[in-house]
Predict the 3D structure of the following.
Amino acid sequence: MKKLITFMLLMFAVQTAAAWGPKGHDVVAYIAECNVNRRVKAKVMQALGGHTFTYYSSWADNIRNFPEYRHTSTWHYANVDEGYTYATMPKNPKGDVLTAVTLIVEQLKSGKITPEEENIYLRMLIHFVGDMHCPMHAGRLSDLGGNLVTVKWFGKEVKLHAVWDDLIVESVRKWSYSEWQREIDNVSREEREALSAGTPLDWMNETVEICQQVYKDAPAGAELSWDYQNENYPLLETQLRKAGYRLARLLNEIYK
């Protein structure tokens, strides 16, 4: 365990395209950073070695690039086939994004972990809450979460998974993560509390429903361009906002 933690702490935050892509994960992390309790923010940043939430927002993607840590590769998503719910779908014995978030929150609340473990768990939580809100990360096992579904994105053949991982985030707006936060983190306190309500299981079920609609709207061979992008921008915005608020709520509860 000590070797694992030491190695992980030495790794740089090399960013890879997964879930929302680096930009989307930065947006989620920064929205959370702007909405946590001030005292909680200080505690989290101290645990992260003085770094911001966004500094490690895509860090968890690096782990699966190393053979020793490929066991975490399934923690970024939860496959749910057509006709199933998260509850009825046979579970991956290696874990999924919901079991990962649940475990991490339990460990962070336990008071029984080392500072090094706290650091690692926080990096993971910041990333996995974002993953949980990316529609295709609740995709079907039968097509590997949309990775076997080919569509055309502005005339180019791509995987449906890639459309929602990062293509739509990068194309709909050319903003920095701070500009995204400024533009979409603009709801009332009451709406923010409503959006952050529920449990991680509730949020997972919500993403499963959204993913099922994504499949219907973008079947294999579909040609997706401006109309699809404009129709789905509100959903993209909502999911990024929800992920940020919900991450902030979890951190407030952990460090209350």
